[in-house]
Amino acid sequence: MTSQSGEEDDESRSPDGDRLARGRARLAEITGRSGAEVMAALGEVAPDFARYIFEFGYGDIYSRPGLDLRTRMLATVAGLVALGHARRELEVHIGSALNVGASREEVVEVIMQMALYAGFPAALDALLVAKEVFAARDAAPAPEDAGRSDGT
Amino acid sequence: MTSQSGEEDDESRSPDGDRLARGRARLAEITGRSGAEVMAALGEVAPDFARYIFEFGYGDIYSRPGLDLRTRMLATVAGLVALGHARRELEVHIGSALNVGASREEVVEVIMQMALYAGFPAALDALLVAKEVFAARDAAPAPEDAGRSDGT
Amino acid sequence: MTSQSGEEDDESRSPDGDRLARGRARLAEITGRSGAEVMAALGEVAPDFARYIFEFGYGDIYSRPGLDLRTRMLATVAGLVALGHARRELEVHIGSALNVGASREEVVEVIMQMALYAGFPAALDALLVAKEVFAARDAAPAPEDAGRSDGT
Amino acid sequence: MTSQSGEEDDESRSPDGDRLARGRARLAEITGRSGAEVMAALGEVAPDFARYIFEFGYGDIYSRPGLDLRTRMLATVAGLVALGHARRELEVHIGSALNVGASREEVVEVIMQMALYAGFPAALDALLVAKEVFAARDAAPAPEDAGRSDGT
Amino acid sequence: MTSQSGEEDDESRSPDGDRLARGRARLAEITGRSGAEVMAALGEVAPDFARYIFEFGYGDIYSRPGLDLRTRMLATVAGLVALGHARRELEVHIGSALNVGASREEVVEVIMQMALYAGFPAALDALLVAKEVFAARDAAPAPEDAGRSDGT
Amino acid sequence: MTSQSGEEDDESRSPDGDRLARGRARLAEITGRSGAEVMAALGEVAPDFARYIFEFGYGDIYSRPGLDLRTRMLATVAGLVALGHARRELEVHIGSALNVGASREEVVEVIMQMALYAGFPAALDALLVAKEVFAARDAAPAPEDAGRSDGT
């Protein structure tokens, strides 16, 4: 599983152009969304912010070796539940966790566990987001769910 | 690795006495601290709170199957970094993550990743806590570190 | 008023089955909602989470003696305002506070007071939630409001 | 620049009636909303809270000399982004910042910068709020935008 | 008990001088600290901030009728636990709650209950603060504890 | 004042090596600390995190045109006060704000204003940090304070 994240290692100090391209590819791989969608959402308000998401978020952080992507995304779900207010990102990254190999059960376990640290309201709200994400996938399965629809 | 968390499954609706005993054992396994230490810290102020930590925290949540303990503790570290204020718990559970099989590198990766979601100050403060935990372990290695002192 | 919370005292270490039944009854008494509603909201995503809400939340914590229910629910409103993001729970527990004997004026006082500790936006948002809860009760009075509709 | 905030200085310990009038005027100047709108939103739930917003928020704090209003409102935007949950206030005060002389670019810069301190989700959510505020102004320009529509 | 908070009612729109004097008296009554101590802590950095604490915090909010002081201070403890980071204020207001008639047991109940809403770390940290406050009072009893040392 | 932040504009998409060098220079200019100090604090725990602080924090964000540095640092102070838990960063950036031209009075105004949005405890704690920073500067004036010691 670490092979997923290890391959970019020797590029990790590459020039900006590479970070941008690597980040856009990584974002698509993890979230199932294209960089174009992110840029469209931000519109003309802050195009550089989209670039930072690609370059720093996905080109730097999510391209690091040292931790497999499945654990990374489950940790991200945990962090977003603890924040409490990041509903939009939570929805995206519950999907990301599923995209990179976590099961629905694992996502639910991580969220429930956060009740201990961030309280029941944060966990309950996140479980209702997970319920929506799961229902949307059942209604329109993502391609990457195809091979494991019985296992998640 | 999932064998660590799967064994209590058929006890999961057991009576309270079992939850308490199971929780105390689980707490010791994960944190390397005894229930007596937790109770001593709380003193006579709130003995029932210690009981809830054992019963609900460790007897219920951390005894659930469905997610391996290493991932659980890395998710907990992520959540505690995102909270921002839980320094004491963060110190304990960085240790817990190491106790249940996470490497130092993995702990550091999870913390750094939280800079994306909770900001650089939360991540930086947590890295300094990790530095202290690692240094304390180097000075007085926990028994469970013995076999992997070179690898973490 | 303390008689409401004192009667379960000698059951407080009872087996799990009792915690579950006691918690469901307590939840209904406080929130005016049935356990079935809570379970339906969570659906098949996390049925155990509903069980923890019943057992730990209402069977353990809200069944404790030592503090009357009216003060407990006003403290809960205060805590939820301070969290800032728990709109759903705030709406439920503004209702709970009214259900267990707090007046509308007391709920409003607690929320306004939180402006000091959590800032004006958190308090203002919570006052607008209270306004909605009060309006819904005026439109469809809960049975327990019957005897005090003029006084709250 | 300090002339904007300096003129009330010698009234700063004036009686309550003056604080109220000064606060209502200041609120209108900054937010472009009338005190009547604030009171209408709160309705009969908490009229005193509206008074505190006028008296303490605008009559005391926002009437202080020592910092120009443009910087004050950009700092407020920064604080609201960092809070994470204050969407309603953020929308109002992105508008306030524009009303008192900040440019759209400056608002966007402050929000983007908060990604460093409060994380990308808080900043991203705030940028989408800014996008909405800017679009609403383009659709129905505020009078005070008239003279600088090309510069912001 | 409501007589404690009801007496200032008809002064509630009094001039600033009265708010200041009333606030300083109220602060002393509730916290057991003098306004001079608060001002000394702030030193020359922000004397007006001390004035706002007196005038708005204690002269306005804590002088309102409509909720008894004991419930107010227990709600404040709840809110401060939920905030997570307000250790200094929490220490002061655990003392305030005791000063205005809450028992130690009630303070502990409110804190434990917050584990449900803000998580176990926030509640555990707060219990350890309570333990310190109680120990300091045992070592040097406040005068107001004299008459009820057996009852709290 | 905008000349401070405008000069790097045409380098803003430069290769990584430039981002790193630019970021280290910018960090030193703003915080008065060297990159070596930051790296030393992190030690061997997370050297890449220091690199991200330089590259993304200072090389990207704090090298952007569009907002003068004085306003940027006052906005950062506001955001850190609102976070509540970032004491270490707050101390550094109160100093940064002074370094780039903000007066002590302006720093205090921004902090006091945050009482409205994040509550009095967050603002009070931050004022006490400011008091310490100011006292340390009085004891050992930074070179850049030399020319304006009477004015801040």
TrEMBL record, chains A, B, C, D, E, F:
Chain segments carrying region Disordered: 1-22
Domain Carboxymuconolactone decarboxylase-like: 47-132
Annotated Basic and acidic residues bias: 12-21
Chain intervals with Acidic residues compositional bias: 1-11
Pfam families from the UniProt entry: CMD
Domain of life: Bacteria
Species assigned in the record: Ancylobacter crimeensis
InterPro entries tied to this protein: 4CMD/NDH-1_regulator (IPR052512), AhpD-like (IPR029032), CMD-like (IPR003779)
Protein name (record): Carboxymuconolactone decarboxylase family protein
